[in-house]
Amino acid sequence: MTVKVYSQDGSEVGTVELKDAVFGVEPNEAAVHQYLVNLLARQRQGSAATKTRKDVVGGGHKPWRQKGTGRARAGTASSPLWRGGGTVFGPSPKKFGTRFPKQMKRLAIRSIFSQKAKSGAIKIIDAIELEEFKTKSVRGVLTLLDLNDKKCLILDEGRNDKLRYSCRNLPKVLYSRASLTNGYDILNADVVLLTKAGLQSVEEVFA
After folding, report:
1. CA-based Rg of the chain, rounded to a whole angstrom?
2. φ/ψ (deg, to 5) at 115
């Protein structure tokens, strides 16, 4: 598949051929679904916790003698029956999701990239080079590319702090290194904007 390459000023500067191994596969919906479910599950914090009777402070002695008080028997103040005692079967920290096969992950991401390419949601830009840390500069580039009102995922490779920090205040724009991108961000974007370096990295990693 051949797509146009644009410069920062919005002018067309050439074309590039997208590799069929990444952008031309038959989408596998089952693999995409399993990958996304597992990805979102692994992003859950899973830090909810309560104290059981062994975690509660105190309760190391018998509150009162066994017989003769007229009260019910009690062995410790940390009993779940007491106010301030431990919790029975409460939540504990855990990890959600499971280990996911690398080949299925790559198949899912290739399927998402292919679907985006088929729908014309892949755009290539020569490079994005900013002179300073400025959100206005990124907005200007996106306006020239007619992407200002769309959810846009920018994929670049290498260290580009000016671009990374300049994108943070744009609610519809997300920046990521191409080799570290995930399928959810790609699927959630209306348009995926790749630099030439980002495209090369994507084809090397996921082909």
Report:
1. 27
2. -65, -40
Residue 165, helix vs strand vs coil: helix
- Domain boundaries for CATH 3.40.1370.10 within the chain: 2-44+98-206
- Whole-Å CA distances, 164 to 51, 186, 198: 42, 17, 14
d(C-alpha 11, C-alpha 177), whole Å: 24
Instruction: Identify the pLDDT of residue 191.
Output: 94
Contacts of residue 13, Cβ cutoff 8 Å, sequence gap at least 6: 5, 6, 7, 126
117: pLDDT strictly greater than 90: yes
In order of 84, 156, 157, 186, 188, the CA distances from 191 in angstroms are 54, 14, 18, 8, 9
The CATH number of the domain covering residues in 2-44+98-206: 3.40.1370.10
139/134 Cα distance (integer angstroms): 9
Q: What residue spans of the chain are helical by DSSP H?
A: 20-23, 29-42, 102-118, 135-144, 161-166, 183-188, 196-206
Question: Residue 117 corresponds to which tokens in the numbers above?
Answer: 């390419």
pTM comes to 0.82
Token pair for 7? 């410069």
For residue 172, give Cα distances in angstroms to 156, 191, 196, 203.
17, 11, 22, 25
